[in-house]
Design brief:
- With about 350 residues, this protein is of the alpha/beta class.
- Helices cover about 55% and strands about 15% of the residues.
């Protein structure tokens, strides 16, 4: 059944054909438009986007074959069904019409029953319009999705930047304000030394420990070496410090003197993942040794952390332990990186982080 919204464009230079087709199709369930030349037909087709074109072959200046070729070359009209209208009932004309993209042929003089039968055989004369609209909607949706993805990526990077700014500010506050308060407290506690020296020594020891904890917390929140000297130097400093504190032997392959810098968000993400991975080894793996490798070349930055501890089945990991793994993966994904985890019970764990840094050059 042809819908009332369907439009047929007739391109024919003979006025009597316009009258004939108008009379044959009068009262039908579709709208008919006319053009009296090939050039006018092309212009009208681009204007109204018809659902079917009935095209005469024998026209002056631009014949039906050329019009059909131009219609098929236009992405907006390439899939419009085309019936070629001709008085030439020869094999060569049909072959030529098919070669330029015609869908069917109607022979002059037109038989009313034949015309209506061919229109019915054409399954859904408005299929082109629906296809075009669907493609347009799909292109719009894809473009909107692309924009949303870009916005989400930018927002994710902003979230990471805000988190690190917060850590930096908190570290400065701990160092400058709380540290100063504790230093003042230590000075005050030294005053009654003549009355109770034992109490003074205990208070001094507690204050020294508190100062040490504040310094450690400050460094963990935001090591200034990462901002000042980059990822290689920051990891070299952190691995030595972490190894001393935890007792974990860390074999590492990195160049602490490398001056290569990449995006700050990537550097921070890699540093945080290394921190979390080493902390997990100490807490859960039962390993005495770990291996950390950082490579930075023209295209990629890769971090790998390997241990020979107890390992685990990633599919059956407990929620408490998975939170650290999920955090590493989420942080890597938000920064635009690839996170890979491999672990087998009794065979240790491998964590791999990869960033495409081609655009960083």
């Amino acid at each position: 059944m042809i819908e009332k919204t369907s439009t047929i464009l007739v391109i024919d230079d003979e006025p009597y054909m316009h009258l004939t087709l108008d009379a044959m199709l009068a009262g039908a369930d579709y709208h008919v438009e006319f053009a009296d030349s090939g050039m006018q037909g092309l212009e009208k087709a681009r204007e109204i986007h018809p659902d079917l074109i009935i095209l005469d072959i024998m026209m002056p200046n631009m014949d039906g074959f050329e019009v059909c070729e131009q219609l098929r070359a236009d992405p907006e009209l390439a899939e419009v069904p085309i019936f070629m209208l001709t008085s030439l009932d020869d094999r060569q004309s049909r072959l030529t019409g098919l070669s330029v993209g015609a869908d069917d042929f109607i022979i002059k003089p037109i038989d009313d029953l034949e015309l209506r039968t061919r229109l019915k055989v054409l399954k859904g004369v408005n299929r082109y319009r629906h296809l075009r609209e669907e493609r347009e909607n799909l292109n719009i949706a894809l473009e909107e999705l692309k924009i949303k993805n870009n916005q989400l990526q930018q927002l994710s990077r902003q979230v990471l930047a805000v988190q690190e700014t917060f850590s930096r500010n908190l570290a400065l506050e701990l160092h400058d304000e709380i540290g100063q308060i504790i230093t003042g407290l230590r000075y005050i506690l030294e005053q009654p030394a003549r009355d109770n020296p034992t109490q003074l020594e205990q208070a001094r020891a507690v204050t020294d420990e508190l100062l040490k904890r504040v310094r450690d917390l400050t460094l963990d929140l935001r090591p200034t070496v990462l901002d000042d000297f980059g990822l290689n130097a920051a990891l070299d400093w952190y691995l030595r410090r972490f190894s001393q504190q935890s007792g974990l032997s860390i074999l590492h392959n990195l160049d602490p003197f490398s001056e290569r810098r990449v995006d700050k968000i990537i550097e921070t993400t890699v540093f945080r993942v290394a921190q979390e991975a080493l902390t997990n080894i100490v807490r859960h793996a039962g390993a005495k040794e770990a291996n950390l490798t950082l490579t930075i070349d023209a295209d990629h930055l890769q971090l790998s952390v390997l241990d020979s501890g107890c390992g685990f089945d990633p599919a059956r990991v407990s929620p408490g332990r998975s939170s650290g793994l999920s955090g590493m993966q989420e942080r890597a994904n938000l920064a635009g990186g690839f996170f890979y985890l491999q672990s087998t019970p009794g065979e240790g764990t491998l964590i791999l982080l990869d960033f495409d840094i081609t655009s960083e050059e």
